[in-house]
Write the structure tokens for this entry.
Amino acid sequence: MGFMEQPLAEARAPHWLQSLQARGQSRWSAGKLPTRRTENWKYTPLTGLRDDYRVAAASDVAPAKLPDALAQGLGGTRLVFVDGVYQPSLSSVELPEGLQLCRFADASDAQAALIAEHLDTLVGGQAEPFASLNTATLRDGVFLHVAANADVQTPVHLLWLVRAADAPTAISQRVLVLAESGSRATVVEQFLSLNGAEASFTSGVTELKLEANAKLHHYRLHEESGEAIHIGAVHARLERDANLDSFHLALGSRLKRVDVVVHHAGPGAHADLNGVYLPRGDEHIDYHTTIEHAVPHCTTDEVFRGIVGDKATAVFNGRIHIHPDAQKTRAELSNRNLLTSTEAEVNTKPELEIYADDVQCAHGATVARIDDLALHYLRTRGVSRDEAEVMLSFGFINELIDGMALEPLREYLRPLLAKRFARDDTLARHLL
């Protein structure tokens, strides 16, 4: 049996999406898995993929208990999935005015028509085989529709849990967000392994469509276990004066690859794209970002920071593409990396591809170890070496955490990250 052959056979999309699913299956069958000779996968081998993944049936999914830190939620609507199966008992669906939210399986005729019109319009074809795989295995998804001029103050939280399973589990996650003109909303996507969950493969694709003057805060958090594999993507299209504020966090796992593509399609559009990745052990994380500036008077601020420890590896490839008509563009890209071990490794490649002459663009990347002078300064003031290393590591990313607009999410992340850095509750308390 080949990779994902069984999940493909088990995939059953709603009848109105079956033609789209068939196109995805055709693209997947015609394509090939990337290898180390594929430029965009040069530093990310696919050796951890298995041939025996199975899709969990609803009857096989036992009720789960939410982690204590998430039990209170983030203050808004929450949809919870366990092994890809919706869990109404763990969810809380209270929709404010101007917001529609549905699963593909429960879509009304009007919602189904909108989903069919917009789904898979931002994702590439055979050049992105895993996006095709996601469409090919489509069984369900989440559609978020924000009405014109609606100001949704509370966040929408989409929580994807992986539990301990008897067999390797394949999960397809799909989200479509349609923010109409003048609207405001916040979406949090979170991927989390429950205690003991291992050997899962998640294919996660999100499409964000922002119409004129819409603003979306988007957070995507990866907290899967060390043996999990996640290959996913976020694709966004920004029309005139639209504003996307996007934050990405990835803790390590055996293989984690996320592609982020933002397309500036209307003048005045702006994107803030921030991210933090924290592999350790023998984990691997790969972020590939592409910003397409296709029209004039658009701006991008992109900052990614990584802390790589032990024997872990990380890849960051950030590309900003300025098209010939994109005059008066301002785009800046920064990638900074901190290695906390002599065996840790990072491959970083910021790229500017510019075909317009009236632009302001800058990019830069650094790879460094903990500053010996700063470490010495803290040691001379009575701070132990372990405490000093934890404080300097946390400070390296703290600016990005502080910059998050959603306060409940900041409060959730602080103890999580403090414990990860310290690996000891006593040291972790010094960061809180």
Residues 5-266 form one domain. The chain has two domains: 5-266, 377-432.
